[in-house]
Amino acid sequence: MNWIKTKNNTKINLNEIPTLKISELREEIISLNKRPLAFFGKDWGSLGTKLFVILADDECGDLYVSSVLFGQNEKEYDSLTQVMPSFHIFEREFYEQFGIKPLNHPWLKPVRKNQKDYKFFEMEGEEVHQVAVGPIHAGVIEPGHFRFMCNGETVYHLEIMLGYQNRGVEKLMVEHPSNALAESICGGSVIAHNLAYSKVMEILKDINVSKRAQLIRTLALEMERAAIHIGDLGAIAGDIAYLMGASVFGATRTLVINTMLEFSGSRFGRGLINVGGVNFDIDNEKIERAIKTFEKVEKDVERMVKTMLKNTSVMSRLEKTGTVNIEKAREIGLVGMAARACGLNLDSRFDFADECFKSLALPRKIFKGTGDVNSRFQLRYQETMESLSISKRILAMLKNPSKDELLAPCTNKVSANSLAISITEGWRGEVVHIALTDANSNLTRYKIKDPSFNNWYGLALAVRNNGVSDFPLCNKSFNLSYCGNDL
């Protein structure tokens, strides 16, 4: 077989990964027709560049791993994107980092290194004009440039240029791997990225995390999901000038993150998760207080959402605005909340569940959205309520006394010649961390994929044929990360 089939949160021997010719692997990828999870290169010394490809079979929970070795003089291959558009961003990144060109790629633009000699898409016509926004924005928004091609007020095309926060995080992870660095990858996904990093290192170090520590981690992940979703409900309300919703959701989100502050000393959960488990336990007094808080949050969120959805002015702004249909979402490779709002049934909590989440035996709810702002708004509401329910259930389980150690002993040595994969479903979607080691047990490559990497192009498609003034609302409904993309 030309692939190694594996599961989430596992490691495989690097020497056992098949190495094919690019023409062979291309045919294999097209034949398998699975979703690309990772597509990244590594300098293979005098031999050239090695490309690792990981495909996801979401229905079966399987991962397929294979590779290609490009020799020093091999600098091009026939692009996959022309057959499978979901590879478009992966091939662009690989080309940018290693100079190996995907021939006939339809949109071979830079991903991060794009501030010099960048050629924007051009349109001609008497009514055609360009609107340029950013990279510097009002308030505390991160830097990113948006170039709108408009006919009157209607957006024909949006080109998004990022890369202003390219910090070299993957290289830093190889040189100085730490939970603190993982927490700083993306400020809105502290728990998701730190959890994915911790699991990768635990896989490489053969560390078993106690059941209680796993429950606290899952609790933190669901609290992060609920808090950000509530904040985004408020942001959407604010962008349609529904100020009551913006105020109520803003205050309600604070209740959730202040509970996280009680648990960990940080409203965003910094310092809670560590390789080997967690740094803090939760006593019964805090548990009781948190359960009561979440019950109040549930009532407040439900009341405000139902009030908004009864308002015809609200619905006129949300419905049929910023639509991405299910076919286009699948074609371009949307993940996470943005994909589910289009009707795609993707959720790595269920598709690639860890042992803790499996033990909760939660029913999977299918959201039948149409991919507009209204769908993303209502899905956020549904997931908020689900996450609060999960959080209360875990808190009730944590009341039971346990002798489990919160933090398992940790060694500095990692497995040699290994590739470890961890997928965590953050509130935006799948957060993927992959680590490679050499024969001397040194980290040699660390690959990170934030869901924003998949989803920025979805925002560009969402605003087509909408008014340019609808962009802030569409943008808030996706709420993608600049730094998570830039890395």
Explained architecture:
The chain has 2 domains: 4-103, NADH:ubiquinone oxidoreductase Nqo5 subunit (Beta Polymerase, domain 2, 2-Layer Sandwich); 169-486, Cytochrome-c3 Hydrogenase, chain B (Orthogonal Bundle), CATH 1.10.645.10. Helix 6 (211-239) packs antiparallel against helix 7 and helix 8 (284-309) packs antiparallel against helix 14. It contains 17 helices and 16 strands. It is globular, with a radius of gyration of 22 Å. By secondary structure, it is of the alpha+beta class. The chain has helices at residues 22-32, 88-98, 169-175, 179-183, 190-205, 211-239, 243-264, 284-309, 312-318, 326-332, 336-340, 348-351, 355-360, 373-398, 451-462, 471-478, 482-486, and strands at 4-6, 10-13, 19-20, 35-43, 49-57, 62-70, 76-78, 101-103, 128-133, 145-151, 154-161, 273-274, 277-278, 418-425, 430-437, 443-449. Strands 1, 3, 4, 5 and 6 form a 5-stranded mixed beta sheet that branches. A 4-stranded antiparallel beta sheet has the order 2-14-15-16.
